[in-house]
């Protein structure tokens, strides 16, 4: 990152800090709590939240404030920036083993470091030479049978961007994910810091359909006209017969060239041969359906025009089929309606793009592995989840898009750990497309109670609908924000201290059925702050409900 980018980032953060100070200067307007709700007893909440505004109900909260993690207080920037490590490199790093957290490259991870062993790990990271300001983050989870901790085999390096040492010796740290690695072995050093030997994963490059695998058929109109005119050319002039023969020869030469191009295309490193195509490829209904729809559309538009369509389309007098007159290819005269149909078909063919396969594999197979085509599909599905963000920058970088969607996907930590372990941009994007198409409900992991729906999600942070936050005791929670929730019970009264969202008070929520902790209800404490309330659901407490 160059100096100009750092300066712009610091300036943006200063402006956002000023907005926070202005927000704090506003007169507090804490919502009144009913007497029945003021006790420490659980309050069952069912149906819609208490005045929570959805996307259509207005939005005045600045989502950039949540991504700054201002609840950590003042932190200092670490100006040393580490360049990316080479793929396959093996090195030793101080490790953070976090339960309920999956860190991806480019994702932000805040830490409240209290335990002496992890304080020693941060100190080691700040002073090490090989990879300064870098720690390793690995997800751990408890096995459902014996309750013992299990360590994931794939983690992510995290660069310490900001930190501050407090008077009690604890540390507030803000890190950012960098590169995936495989955990080879782990140990505790003499200072008590957890360490591990890691190997950086060599990421692949985005795949693109080879340019020489398909070609645009500029002469397709002439080919089709020639094909249907052979029978009609019996009454045509010798000059026109020779013209049609010349066109046939052109197509024969194109076919011969396609045989040569076939070898170069299929031998390309970007072709499906690189990975092999198994039986699942022929059953990919998503791509085949799109291919069949385009083919059916072509045939329906090219051969069976309705009279209503013909009346709506206007043609210029210069539009023709490439022949001087009707008698050039058939004897007799055509009706006016039939001539309009032919003119319409000719105009359509001029504006259409026809792709001729010059390789063994059809076009839809290449689309299954084209990282840029998959990125476009994934971005379109992602917009349906979180609204209409600008995804153009991510689409041009499919590798970053695959990590971004995986880190923000509102699903369980186990599913996102699965995405982190997938090698290959195209494979990861295909899996994300499958999950986005099937994702609909958020349920409690323990009792399967319905908590929220996909349509209930609300983005309260500029980083996305799922983000990691840390509480004063050092526990990191990844939460999904929704404006409507069901089957949750409130525990206690709202608290304003250490709120992850400036201007909101938080209240603990449990599942009303199994009483497991599900997250928090956030209620506005500032005037004119919308939404008035929303929910933060812990991703570690939900199960995937895909269809």
UniProtKB/TrEMBL annotation:
Gene Ontology BP term (one): protein ubiquitination
Domain (CULT) ranges: 439-546
Higher taxonomy: Eukaryota, Viridiplantae, Streptophyta, Embryophyta, Tracheophyta
Protein encoded by which gene: LOC105040528
Keywords assigned: Cytoplasm, Metal-binding, Nucleus, Ubl conjugation pathway, Zinc
Region called Disordered, residue ranges: 32-51, 262-281
Main location: cytoplasm
CDD domains the record matches: CRBN_C_like
Acidic residues compositional bias, start-end: 32-43
Name of the featured protein: Protein cereblon
């Amino acid at each position: 990152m160059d100096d100009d980018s750092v300066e712009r980032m610091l300036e943006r953060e200063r402006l956002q800090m000023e907005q926070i100070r202005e927000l704090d200067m506003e007169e507090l307007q804490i919502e009144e709590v009913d007497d029945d709700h003021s006790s420490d007893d659980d309050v069952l909440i069912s149906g819609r939240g208490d005045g929570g505004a959805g996307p259509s109900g207005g939005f005045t909260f600045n989502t950039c404030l949540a991504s700054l993690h201002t609840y950590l207080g003042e932190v200092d920037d670490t100006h040393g920036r580490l360049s990316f490590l080479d793929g396959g490199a093996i090195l030793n790093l101080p490790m953070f083993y976090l339960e309920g957290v999956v860190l991806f490259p480019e994702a932000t991870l805040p830490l409240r470091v209290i335990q002496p062993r992890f304080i020693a790990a941060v100190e080691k990271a700040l002073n090490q030479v090989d990879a300064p300001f870098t720690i390793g983050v690995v997800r751990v989870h408890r096995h459902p049978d014996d309750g013992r901790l299990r360590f994931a085999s794939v983690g992510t390096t995290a660069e310490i961007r900001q930190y501050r040492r407090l008077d009690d010796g604890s540390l507030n740290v803000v890190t950012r994910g960098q590169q995936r690695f495989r955990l080879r072995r782990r140990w505790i050093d003499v200072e008590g810091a957890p360490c591990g030997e890691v190997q950086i994963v060599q990421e692949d490059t985005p795949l693109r359909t080879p340019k020489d695998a398909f070609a645009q058929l500029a002469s397709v109109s002439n080919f089709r006209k020639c094909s249907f005119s052979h029978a009609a050319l019996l009454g045509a002039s010798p000059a026109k017969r020779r013209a049609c023969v010349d066109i046939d020869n052109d197509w024969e030469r194109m076919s011969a060239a396609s045989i040569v191009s076939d070898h170069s295309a299929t031998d390309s490193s970007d072709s499906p041969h690189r990975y092999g195509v198994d039986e699942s490829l022929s059953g990919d209904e998503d791509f085949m359906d799109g291919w069949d729809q385009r083919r059916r559309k072509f045939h329906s538009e090219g051969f069976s025009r309705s009279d209503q369509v013909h009346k709506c389309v206007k043609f210029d007098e210069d539009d023709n089929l490439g022949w001087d007159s009707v008698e050039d290819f058939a004897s007799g005269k055509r009706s006016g309606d039939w001539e309009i149909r032919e003119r319409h078909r000719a105009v359509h063919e001029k504006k259409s793009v026809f792709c001729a396969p010059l390789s063994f594999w059809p076009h839809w197979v290449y689309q299954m592995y084209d990282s840029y085509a998959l990125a476009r599909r994934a971005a379109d599905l992602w917009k349906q989840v979180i609204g209409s963000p600008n995804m153009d920058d991510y689409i041009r970088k499919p590798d970053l898009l695959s990590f971004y969607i995986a880190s923000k996907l509102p699903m369980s930590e186990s599913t996102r750990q699965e995405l982190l372990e997938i090698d290959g941009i195209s494979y990861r994007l295909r899996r994300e497309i499958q999950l986005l198409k099937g994702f609909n409900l958020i349920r409690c992991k323990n009792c399967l109670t319905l908590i929220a729906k996909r349509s209930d999600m609300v983005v309260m942070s500029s980083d996305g609908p799922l983000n990691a936050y840390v509480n004063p005791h050092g526990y990191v929670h990844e939460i999904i924000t929704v404006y409507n929730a069901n089957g949750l019970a409130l525990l206690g009264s709202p608290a304003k201290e250490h709120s992850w969202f400036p201007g909101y008070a938080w209240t603990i929520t449990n599942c009303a059925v199994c009483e497991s902790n599900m997250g928090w209800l956030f209620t506005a404490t500032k005037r004119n702050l919308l939404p008035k309330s929303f929910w933060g659901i812990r991703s570690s407490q939900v199960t995937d409900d895909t269809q």
